[in-house]
Design brief:
Mean pLDDT: 92
Radius of gyration: 17 Å
CATH topology: Spore Coat Polysaccharide Biosynthesis Protein SpsA, Chain A
Order of helices and strands: EEEHEHEHEHEEEEHHEH
Number of strands: 11
Number of domains: 1
Structural class: alpha/beta
Distance between the termini: 26 Å
Helix content: 25-40%
Strand content: 15-25%
CATH superfamily: Spore Coat Polysaccharide Biosynthesis Protein SpsA, Chain A
Length: 253
């Protein structure tokens, strides 16, 4: 029997670089629809049993757009944005009775395709990993976490820009911020991460170090087209995503 799937969509951000503080970042539109709508479509197409939207800044608009009594979608508030790890922590209660895999998507990454995510989930299940990271090879990885692999291609760690050595900074494979986890191990690890960083935030990738210390398998799948995992942070990137979507015929596939 195929494992159950829940999808957590991170959609709480303010998006200050979008230059409109009165609007939730994920509600900026591409071809007449909020960018997060494409992410929700993807979750539905994957056959997710549950879709949890983590909302925060101007959350009323997100809830109003999707809150039409769809029993598949629920909302979890992150009223104070304390990082991606903190965002996923907020879903712990809603998923306490769920036994399966948890896919974490970003509400500002609307170009991700079903084909790519099915490959991610399939590899996660085939390897028996506790966590699988979607990665991409980019020409300029500056600012991104680099994927450091073991000889068997499993993941040793993510070397963040500030911590990466000279050799690691030459690695072109980066963390996209999209993951699939085994639920039990994910929330156990989330309970152990700390905000010991300059931003005083809880970072989701910190769970990977906890898994590594427990000698649990972490795997990674490389996305063939880096454009799929591009986050939208400003109006130029929004326009670029619109052009890509038009080239596809108006929707992620």
């Amino acid at each position: 029997m195929e494992k159950r799937l829940a999808v957590v969509i991170l959609a709480a951000g303010k998006g200050t670089r979008m230059k409109n503080s009165e609007k939730s970042k994920v509600m900026f539109e591409i071809e007449g629809r909020p960018m997060v709508a494409y992410v929700v479509d993807l979750a539905r197409n994957l056959g997710a049993e549950r879709i949890l939207l983590v909302v925060g800044w101007k959350k009323e608009s997100v809830i109003a757009y999707f809150g039409g009594g769809d029993p598949q979608i629920s909302f979890v508030s992150q009223d104070i944005q304390l990082g991606t790890g903190h965002a996923v922590q907020q879903t712990g209660g809603a998923l306490s009775d769920f036994d399966g895999d948890v896919l974490v998507l970003s509400g500002d990454v609307p170009l991700l395709t079903e084909k790519t995510v099915r490959a991610l989930i399939g590899y996660h299940r085939a390897t028996g990993a506790v966590a699988t990271i979607l990665t991409a090879e980019v020409p300029d990885p500056t600012g991104y976490g680099r994927i450091v692999r073991n000889k068997d291609e499993s993941v040793l760690r993510i070397a963040e820009e500030k911590d990466a050595g000279a050799g690691e900074k030459k690695i072109g494979e980066i963390n996209s911020g999209i993951y699939v986890f085994s639920r039990k191990e994910l929330f156990e690890a989330l309970g152990q991460i700390t905000p010991e960083n300059t931003q005083k935030e809880y970072y989701l990738p910190d769970v990977l170090e906890i898994f590594r210390r427990k000698d649990l398998l972490i795997s990674a799948v490389k996305c063939l087209d880096p454009a799929e995992v591009a986050g939208i942070n400003d109006s130029e990137q929004l326009e670029s995503a619109r052009r890509v979507m038009l080239g596809r015929g108006g929707a992620a596939v």
